[in-house]
Protein: Integral membrane protein
Organism: Marinovum algicola
Amino acid sequence: MTLRRVSAGLLALAVVATLATRIALNMEANGTTLPEALWGIYRYFTIWTNTAVALAAGLIALRGRLDGRISGGLVMAIAAVGLVYHALLAHLSDYAGLELLLDEMLHTVVPIWFVLHWLAFEPKERARPAALPAWLAFPAVYCFYALGRAAFDGVYPYFFLDIPEQGLVQVLINIAGLIAAFAVLGGIILLVARMLSVRQLAQHG
């Protein structure tokens, strides 16, 4: 088994273990059933993105390949998880012990691990500008999914999506700004992919 597949397999296992522990703690703390715990935890972009990374990493470990358009988009999404959390949300949490470990896994360790894995191992030739709209669809769809859920149960996962607190117009502005930030990050990833692809071709030319 190649180092690429080992890295991906260990990452997939780490994410699954982290998510399973997070769900179990929620069930214990809140006295909820498994479906209720899943409903609660999957209101967050962090959880959706970590789950996508686990699935992608598992696919790499099992099959040894993943379309560069998919891996590039996931790099953008999981990098944004880490950047947004540490820039805007980390100060809102006061976790300790196991809760802190899980939080750091989801927001720091997994983003860094997957970005480094992508840089070191994943093919980047298909990570091209034409893929960017599809990459941006993920956070855009999530935002409206979160708002739809909140309209149903009244729970807004992030302060910048909180319509009662900020108003609909401001939330739409926030979403537009967020997608623009994702576009910038995606552009950086595309540039890096292009540079690494050219270097790889030159080395094998």
Remarks:
- The CA atoms of residues 45 and 142 lie 7 Å apart.
- The chain has a mean pLDDT of 91.
